[in-house]
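dumping this here before i forget
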Amino acid sequence: MSNFYDTLGVSKQASKDEIKKAYRKQAMKYHPDKNKWDTGAEKKFKEVNEAYQVLSDDTKRKQYDTFGSAGARGNPFGGWSGWANPFGWGGMGWFEDIFSWFGWWTSTNGSHIDLEDLFGGMGGGWFQSRSGQTQQKPVSLDFEKTYEIPIFDMILGCKIEVRGVYGQTAKLSIPAGTQPGTKFRVKEFGKSEGTKKWNLIVTAKAKMPKNISDMDKKMLETIRDGVGY
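structure:
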């Protein structure tokens, strides 16, 4: 078994912050989605994950320093099963680190993203169940794109032209009062796989005006005072 410190490329005196930074760098380098069909990278990714789960926890790190490799897989770690069960004692924290790093963990409305749905939408379509069994989920080929829409058009409602993956166009209705960050699905405008056509997911982003005259500002102030929320 590799030395956990060497696996992450840090010294035994490394701080928790240094360990986390080293882990993120290694995890990105060897992530299965970036190294498809590379079994060596997949093995390295598992080793990096295993090392981080131990060294990022003060108690388990101390036990590892004391008992070494044998302790890492024995009772000193409370029967830890490593990569086979990422939803065990350390797995969920690992996913939170990854997703918070990319800004994926919290959605625009503040709710948590369902991990299985998220993995189903990433290349590879794999995740680990609580039983440790590898499960396959359909790989989504939906294509996401953000469109800037003038804020007043979002307030009053409008139609915008959207473009699919293969250049096809369509008019998308934006209802009055649409909130920034709202997502719309345009069917069969995403990628194709055989006879299956996936969707275009449009995210509405508010475009603010650059120049407003003094007269318009006064009008907006009047409107603001009379608007209910």
